[in-house]
Design a protein that fits this description.
single chain; alpha/beta; six-stranded parallel β-sheet; 5 helices
């Protein structure tokens, strides 16, 4: 179902600890959401401790900080007033987005775009989603990452970026630009198709 122009649409952006709103994945997905008529809420996080990949206690600290700041920022938002709600998360923001979606009384209206999600993201129940992850991401175990399997178990399309780190980058500038273009093309398809894409199908790696 394509959205009609009279629908109220909201996009909420949940950044990472260091991956702020001016970084490519969030910057361009914000532009796409705006182009499709979504009102925007761009969250900002602060006060995180030093990052340490694989440190579960530190990850819990990050989540508590980001979650508390998110609740404060969204306390006056009436999600029930919107017909279509898009949550776009990056890293720690994907856990917060999943938690907020899971707890929402209008969970069925919330669709999630998850850039480099963490394993704890999948602790929460949420609906229609798409995932982008790198097979060289130290935060999820690189090639040993459980993210693809967690997606399969939930019938969530999972795009795997070859050589992609926690920013979906390889260090090769031209390759990273090509990957960013493809990721944004898939992001746009998800935004405009409003949940009509077939979940659970095998998704090729993005190159």
């Amino acid at each position: 179902m394509m959205h009609s122009d009279d629908q109220k649409k909201l996009a909420v952006f949940f950044p990472g600890a260091g991956y702020t709103m001016d970084k490519p994945l969030v910057y361009y997905s914000r532009k796409l959401a705006a182009a499709y008529g979504y009102q925007e809420i761009a969250l900002q996080y602060s006060g995180f401790p030093e990052k340490k990949p694989g440190d579960n206690d530190r990850m819990k600290q990050f989540f508590k900080i980001a979650y508390a700041q998110t609740l404060n920022s969204l306390e006056n938002v009436e999600f029930s007033a919107y017909d279509d709600i898009l949550f776009v998360g990056k890293s720690i923001g994907t856990i917060v987005a999943a938690k907020i979606a899971s707890d929402s009384t209008v969970r069925e209206r919330i669709r999630l775009i998850l850039y480099t999600p963490l394993e704890r993201t999948f602790v929460h129940e949420f609906g229609d989603a798409v995932v982008f992850t790198g097979n060289n991401d130290p935060w999820v175990g690189k090639s040993e990452s459980l993210i693809p399997r967690l997606c399969r178990e939930r019938n969530i399309p999972c795009h795997i970026i070859p050589d992609g780190n926690h920013s979906l980058e390889s260090g090769n500038v031209q390759q990273d630009i090509r990957v960013l273009k493809t990721v944004m093309e898939e992001t746009e398809l998800f935004i405009k198709d409003s949940g009509t894409r077939q979940a659970g199908a095998d998704v090729p790696s993005l190159t």
